[in-house]
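New to this. Help decode both lines:
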Amino acid sequence: MNRKIKIVPDIKKRINRQLELLDLKAKESLDEAIKIGLHFYTSYCLKSDGSKYIFKARISDEYFACKSFANEVNATLFFSQIPEIKKHVVFRNVYDWGLTARLDWAVYEFLQGKVVTEEKVHQKIINSIVKALVQLQSVPVSIVPVDIYHFDGIFSKIWFKDIFWHDNDYTRYKKQLKIMLPHLKRIIKCDEKILEFFRKNKKLINESEKVLAHGDFDLNNILLSNSKIFFIDWERIRIANRAFDLSNMYTRLSASWRNDLLRTFIKKAPNPTLNRKLFRLMVILQCLYKIHPAYYYKEVKGGKIDIKAIEDWNQTILKALDSFDALLK
């Protein structure tokens, strides 16, 4: 079902004009991106000299899209200048960009490779993903700006103090739970247990170690190029706890690969390992993040509900409430 989103006025004309100015010929359909309700238009492009690039522009005029596109561009520009980050994280370069009232756009390095799909996942890929995640979490948080950053004399704001930046706060999680759980009473029968579990672990959540996080850690945002793992689409970049990204991917993988991902991370993570109770909390939250739009909004607005996926997330919540070992079964 196509989503209805608020579109930037005259977006087709603006994007086509920008592509013309950049001497780029896009290969992906802009009309299709608008039709299915994507927030961003991304296309492989060719220049007249035959060189290849990735062009990305914001087509949604919704608040989230406005913030997150600026996040991605500014963060990528910032990261590319910091040796400590380049040492840890492999990401594609941004060659040109514009964040204006008329159009947000960026031109990225073209990487010959493929997005990782679950059908192509094997243990070697899991090892590479975990290694890249551990490297990302090794970036010293102290070098990351938390408010304003001046880049080459151009004033640009990174929304590092907004909802997409800090995810270590019990009060914020509690607020999110209070919003989601009432809508899900028909399928989530343990809402009080969830709230109590978070209440009991308030101190753990608030005092957990802070690390740099991708924010939308999923196979769709991992590119395999020349045997290297690249993280792409940094719109939801944030400071979070060590379990945030891992729990996100865990809840998106099928049961056959979840446990391999978790066991591999436990072996390779620096510390005494992952805090198991914190991981259980984040798994519950990530499952609810996925059930809420999949169930509530589709039920209200119409459309099909993936009952099998929702039941799987529901069962995962029950396992997380039980114990860490239950998640590994």
Summary: The chain is about 45% helix and 20% strand.
